[in-house]
């Protein structure tokens, strides 16, 4: 596969993944689709906005750069073989990989710690001492009285963020290697095939 086609494919895969992360993080801000608990009762991992900033905006940048690197060359006719855009894509991919790693680490911590909820007469991180074992024991999930269904909500959305950020790390790594090859070798597509 040519470096330009590969870059375009990776970019078109990263853009929807980044949008998924942004939406998942936005949903984490409204447990059970209600804003009643948003002010004081959300966990730290939700407020760190890893899906919005890390897996979202920081990955959207390399996604767009990769799509552009797969297009025409910087001179309009592709005379430099897209080396300039591929070089930009190298830096953007490294930036995106950092964002995806941030998203993965914060989301993983959110899963391990569990949500902040009202249980046994107090608000707190009641699953923190379980070191993530509460994920396998669904009978404990109903012990969180408020916000209702917050454990299901957090586990689903943080799991989605973990999966999306793992894919983003993989795709950013592929584009990093692909763009480095594109910088040195240029784009192997014929001039008429460039769009």
TrEMBL record:
One Pfam family hit: L6_membrane
Superkingdom, taxonomy of origin: Eukaryota
Keyword hit for Transmembrane helix: yes
Compartments it resides in: Membrane
Membrane topology reported for the UniProt record: Multi-pass membrane protein
TM annotation in the entry: 9-30, 42-69, 90-111, 157-185
Annotated GO CC locations: lysosomal membrane; membrane; plasma membrane
InterPro entries per UniProt: L6_membrane (IPR008661)
Main subcellular localisation: membrane
Biological processes, Gene Ontology terms: regulation of G1/S transition of mitotic cell cycle
GO molecular function: arginine binding
Keywords carried by this UniProt record: Membrane, Transmembrane, Transmembrane helix
Presence of the UniProt keyword Transmembrane helix in the record: yes
PANTHER family referenced in this protein's UniProt entry, alphabetically: TRANSMEMBRANE 4 L6 FAMILY MEMBER 1-RELATED, TRANSMEMBRANE 4 L6 FAMILY MEMBER 5
Family: Belongs to the L6 tetraspanin family.
Record protein name field: Transmembrane 4 L six family member 5
Gene behind the chain: TM4SF5
